[in-house]
Amino acid sequence: ADKIDRRQSQPQLENGSLDERRHRRDLKMYYGMENGDEATVPPGSQTIVQSTDPCNLDGANFQPQTYLSRLIQERSLTELMDEEQKMVRDIKGLDSDMQTLVYENYNKFISATDTIRKMKNDFRKMEDEMDHLASNMSAITDFSSSISSTLQDRRQQITKLAGVHSLLKKLQFLFELPARLNKCIEMEAYVQGVRYYSKAQRVLHQYEHMPSFQGIHMDCEIMIKQLRGQLMERFRQKESTAKQLTECVDLLLQLGEPAESLCDEFLSHARHKLDEDIGDLQKQIKLYSGELSPGEEEPRPAQVYLNPGMDVLEFVDSGCNGFLSNMCLVIASYNDMFMNRPLTDESLDTVALRKLVVFVNDLMEQYFNSVRQRVQLEKETGDNTILVRALDRFHRRLQAMNKLLPDTDFSRAGTEIVSKGARDRVSHYLKSLKQHFADCLTDIRQNLAAPRVLGKQDHGTRLADLLTNMQGSVVEQLKSVLGNLQAFIAPDITFAMKPYFRGPFCSQDVREGLVVAFVKHVCTICNDFCEVPGDKTTSPPALLIILSRFCIDLENAAISYLLSLAEEQFMVEDKASVTAATDLFAMAKDAGQRLLNHYVRVQGLIISQMLRKSVETRDWLNTIEPRNVRAVMKRVVEDITAIDMQVGQLYEEGVRRERSSDSSRRTHVLSTSQQNRRPQWNYAPSIDNSLMSNIQKLFSEKIEIFSAVEFSKVSVLTGIVKISLKTFLECVRLRTFGRYGLQQIQVDTHYLQLYLWRFVSDENLVQVLLDEIVCSAVHRCVDPVMMEPSVIDLICERG
Description:
Oligomer: single chain
Function: Acts as component of the GARP complex that is involved in retrograde transport from early and late endosomes to the trans-Golgi network (TGN).
Family: Belongs to the VPS51 family.
Helix content: over 70%
Subunit structure: Component of the Golgi-associated retrograde protein (GARP) complex.
């Protein structure tokens, strides 16, 4: 029960932890607080809930006997021993916590006692000092009262004398003012003189009607007029510095000089220096370009060599450090003198600002013209680095000027100059690319015109090499140009980050103005090769076939590669306003198609000329019996063979129609099968044969001679053979043949048949055209006797 009583003396917070309950109980016991005292609970603390249960150890109504009786009744002996041990442990823990709490609070109480003792000593000293201060204040009050009582009778007299003394000093200043002004003028102390006059001006004007002040006023006016004249003279001097000009304007304004006239005077004076700066820039432009004005002597070569003129970066630096610096100084000085003055009229500020804006715009336009002229001279140079640095420096300086004079916007004009310089560089590079392409064509012409040492096969091989060299050279040149133009969009360039420059430059200038324009130029040049007046051509056929293949390669790969390269390097984002790649593909393909068609016509015309001359220059009525194939037919076969090798180097074989089973016309089969073949062209001069021939033409397929050529070797050769044989046919129709003339035509056509079938897509086409040639010769023969096929075969084999 004693243990229970000791534990019951510690109240418990129902919603607190064990440690918190212990500390609260300990503090209550230490300070002797009653269990029911609730008034000392600080605000915000947890409220102690009183329990009415007599068995609650922490409650105020705890009854030890009742709790012990219930515990004995409800618990076993073992549980009672455990409960006893638990209470012993709790009591020991509470005792230990109590000792710790008392020790900690003891240290705090000791420290608080020391602090209170120290404060008591400090307050004692402070009380002594306050007593001493009170005694001093009393002494001061007594002394002040003594002085006031002593001087009370003379106060009004002293005040009056002080006023008289001040008035006398002012009058003395007025009487001495003319002499002071004269001395200030002699010593050029204009600021001091204007200050003297400004101090006395109001009084002099107020009392100028009095005789004594009238003379002083007149003398001062004479001195001020002289002072004003010297200020105006200094104001108009070219050697005056900006500080002196500012001082003169300020003094003149204080003296009542009209502000508008001073604005005009100041701007006129400043214009002389700025005009000299513009003149120096124009001299540098003339020196660099080599131009001379009327009356100027031509410099000697040594002078030109030693002083060739400034480069564009030095020119821009000279303009920025000279003209723009002086312009900024003029603007700043003008603002300080006429616009940033306190207590100025708003209308005066408006007039002054308008005059300044007109003045600055006029001179800046001259400066911009000089910069345009100098940048224009740089379009033919090869290096972009100096030009880009110069334009960047020019653009940066203009941005600073905009801040100095907000009512003007020079950035637009500066951006136009920068953009124009960039466009000029693009135009120069486009011109150089066009010239490079022309040089490539010239090199190909020279290589084609060079004598062939190793034979035709070597010539055919050189076509592919020439094409490859031209393609590689053009692409590398364009890549080099794009690399050079990247200097305009470098990260450290100010205007390169501006969207109003970067967007148009990358999309319109580089992509459209360079890459697309060059592709269009190539297509235009290729189309120009097809515009040949009459039947004459100055372009070698090999050049036409090379250019045709070059255009096809542009369509297949080069255009896509170049556009992708430009868009990646220059980050072209506006794809809506640019030329579509499909349009360029169609343009290149059309140019290649036209070149290939023109090549077929040119080669067909060359062979046709040989055949026409061979037919027109021979007497077919009186010719001798044929013993061999004419040389022109051998030449035709040789030329077509050379064309086949030439085209084969640049184009694929192509698709041929399935050959017929009748291979008797092949050369290597003639010797074994010529006895078994049915005689060919065994025509008789009868109406029946003519009628049958016409009927056969009605049911045969129409041969289109000048049809479009496909991009393959077989198609090209087919077109050439069709043109050649058609020419041969028309020439035969214009001649009259004798017996041996007809037989010679038989031999020639059979020889052509032996060799030409391998070059065309359909051998029946050759067969039909040659049949028409022989039929036409038969119809125009006066003695149509055909030669035996065996004899024809023998002659052709021997040929």
